[in-house]
Design brief:
By secondary structure, the chain is an alpha+beta fold. It is built from 3 helices and 12 strands. The longest helix has about 80 residues. Its main location: secreted.
Length: about 270
Amino acid sequence: MAIIIISMVLLGVCFQHSLASDIKSPKDEIADIRKLLQDQNERILKLESENLALKSRLTHVEGDNADLREQVVGVAKKHELLQDEVVNLRRQLSEMEELPEQTNPQTSGVLLKDNASPSNTKNRRLLALVTDPPTASVDLVAFYAYMSKPEPNPSNHFTLIFDVVRTNLGNGYNKHSGTFVAPSAGAYVITWTINTSPHGAHHINLMVNSAIAGGTLTDTEETGDYDSDSNTAVLVLNQGDSVNLRITYPSVGILYADSRAFTSFSGWKL
C-alpha cells in the first residue's frame, strides 16, 4: 500500500513538472512578441524601400515621356516650317513661269521701269534666271559604263557591276553598286549589251526599283561559240528611281568582257 502511494506521488510530481515546462513564462512570451514585431518592422522597411525605388523609376519614366513629347512637338513645328517653305517655293516657281509672259518683247526681257524697290529687284533677278541663256544644261543626264573583266558563273540575284565609267553626266550612275539613280524625273532610254563565253547561259533582267522592266537571255552551245546580245528600254522614271541589271536565274558559264567585246550598261534622258 505504501508503495502504491509513493508511486502515485511520483507520477503527480512528474506530471506537474511536464506541465510547467510546456507553459511559457510571461517573459518568454514578451520576447517572442518582440521578435515577431522586429521581423514585421524589417519587412515594412523593405517594402517601403522597394516602394521608393519604384517611385523613382516612375519619375524617370515620366521625365523621359516629357522629353519625347517635347521632341514630337519640335518635329511637328519643323514639319510645318518645311511645308511653308515648299508652298513658298511653289509660289516662286509659279511666278517665274509667268514672268516671260509679262516682259516686253522689245526689251528682251528687261523691265521698262528700273527703280530700287524690293519687288522690282526681285523681278529683275527672276527675269535674269528665266531669260539669260544658260551656259550648260543643268538637266542633261547620260551615263555609259562597261565591265573591265569577265564575271564567272554569276549567282542568282547578282547585280551586274560595270566598273569602268566613261560618261556620267548628272552623276546618276554608281560604279560600286552598278545602279543608276535618276537625278530628275522624265523619259529615259536604257540600253545594255551582254557577251557570253562558250557553253554559257544567262538570264538577265532590267530592274526598276526591284521590279522587272526588261530582260535578255543569252545562250551559247558549241565550243568557240561567243554570243553578244543587246536590248533597249524606254522608261518614264521619277527622281530617285533606281535602275540596274540583275541575274534572275542561276547562270552557266562566263559573262565575257574584254577589249574586243564590251559588256556595257548605258542610258540617257530624252
